[in-house]
Specification:
This protein is mostly helical. The chain contains 17 helices and no strands. It has helices at residues 2-10, 17-36, 39-50, 54-77, 82-102, 106-135, 141-167, 172-190, 217-247, 251-254, 257-274, 276-279, 281-301, 305-316, 319-334, 338-363, 371-389.
């Protein structure tokens, strides 16, 4: 009887657990694979036919990340049903992506990328929270991994689609339009799973001191280290295809750096969910920083397409593992103050993502050399890994 109650609770409106997890995967694939990171594989195409420089690309990426920061913070306080935020956010991402293909002015591109960033944050926050809440009674961690695997799946699929479009000779405008149509099509797939639940009141975080982070040394450590990972991973996450294109101009070669990144994120997320109780969150986080630092340093130590592909594999295989481990560490460290600490860590991560592309715009110079920015990111990861090791694992 207890098992029947669990199944009923986790399968509301007749949806089995896997269907809920699959809807979450699709929602996060649109939010992150298209709303956030489709710009990465399209940027080399925009350089080719729209004359967008590396520095200008950095500013467009930062506009998206600034929007993501605003969206993550506003999601904490807004009075809106989760289902409405998810559906509205998915539709807005599709329309903003279509708009990138129809506009031809830099200022309008920046506005559209910022809007996509805001909506991506809404979908990520509300869809992940909604799916995890509905899956909790099943006690099957792998289904949680399926939900977060949507980030890697969206990156891999978006990157693969751009490789095909480049091979077909499509322009960057056409690529944006195709991606926008794909986002709206996937939205239609996930739409039924996020129907409004009439009995649920609008969710919001109460503005009380109870939700404010408790600023002890451990909280500061977690916030700074998570912000460091945001700064460091976003540099290769934004510019890997551009770096690969500097070496080999064949899109069938350089274009695959981004799908490899996404596939690694998907596989590592599922693997980490399966091994959650074996390795431990703090050790997973530290190992993620060290492995990511190695991946970021490889293109500097041994320039070449092989190093760039290995960087895509190592960075893509760690950034979502770090995210999951960091969120669980925040809950363990803060207890009743976890909401405030998670919000502060998310803000630090988003701020790092804004600073990363800007640092590239400043450091690459006219010759387009990424070595300085990559070494800076590598050093920051190693310092933060050491800082994490100083605190006893909880």
């Amino acid at each position: 009887m207890e098992n029947g109650a669990v199944r009923a609770a986790a399968s509301e409106r007749g949806l089995p657990g896997f269907a809920i997890a699959l809807a979450g995967l699709v929602a996060l694939a649109v939010a992150m694979g298209i709303g956030r990171f489709a710009f990465t594989p399209v940027l080399p195409m925009m350089q080719e036919d729209a004359g967008v420089s590396v520095a200008a690309g950095g500013w467009l990426a930062s506009a998206n990340y600034l929007g993501y920061l605003f969206g993550a913070l506003s999601a904490m306080w807004m009075r809106i049903r989760a289902e409405r935020a998810i559906r509205g956010g998915l539709v807005a991402i599709g329309l903003a992506t279509l708009g990138m293909g129809l506009a031809d002015q830099f200022a309008l591109w920046a506005v559209l990328r910022a809007l996509a960033g805001v909506m991506s944050a809404w979908v990520f926050v509300f869809a992940s929270a909604s799916c995890l809440e509905r899956l909790a009674p099943l006690r099957r961690p792998l289904l949680n991994g399926v939900v977060f695997g949507g980030v890697g799946a969206g990156i891999a699929a978006g990157g693969g689609l751009c490789v095909a479009l480049m091979q077909a000779g499509a322009s960057s405008s056409q690529a944006w339009i195709v991606l926008g149509v794909a986002a709206l099509g996937l939205t239609a797939v996930a739409w039924p799973a996020f129907a409004a639940r009439g009995e649920a009141p609008p969710r919001r975080v109460a503005r009380t001191a109870h939700n404010a982070p408790r600023w002890d040394s451990e909280s500061v450590r977690l916030v700074l280290c998570y912000g460091a990972s945001g700064f460091s991973y976003i540099i290769p996450a934004t510019f890997l295809p551009v770096m690969a294109k500097q070496i080999i101009r064949d899109p069938l070669v350089f274009g695959w750096s981004w799908p490899v990144f996404g596939a690694a994120a998907l596989v590592s997320t599922l693997a980490a969910a399966s091994l959650q109780g074996v390795i431990g969150d703090r050790r997973s986080w530290i190992a993620g920083h060290v492995i990511m630092a190695l991946g970021i340093a490889l293109p500097v130590l041994r320039p070449g397409i092989v190093s760039i592909m290995l960087a895509a594999l190592l960075v893509g295989g760690t950034f979502m593992v770090i995210t999951m481990a960091a969120m669980r560490e925040a809950r363990d460290a803060a207890g009743p103050h976890a909401i405030g600490l998670i919000a502060a860590m998310t803000a630090a991560f988003a701020a790092g993502q804004i600073a990363g592309p800007i640092s590239v715009s400043v450091l690459v110079g006219v010759e387009g050399n990424f070595s300085g920015a990559l070494l800076c990111a590598c050093a920051l990861l190693l310092i933060s890994a050491y800082a994490l090791s100083l605190s006893p694992r909880r």
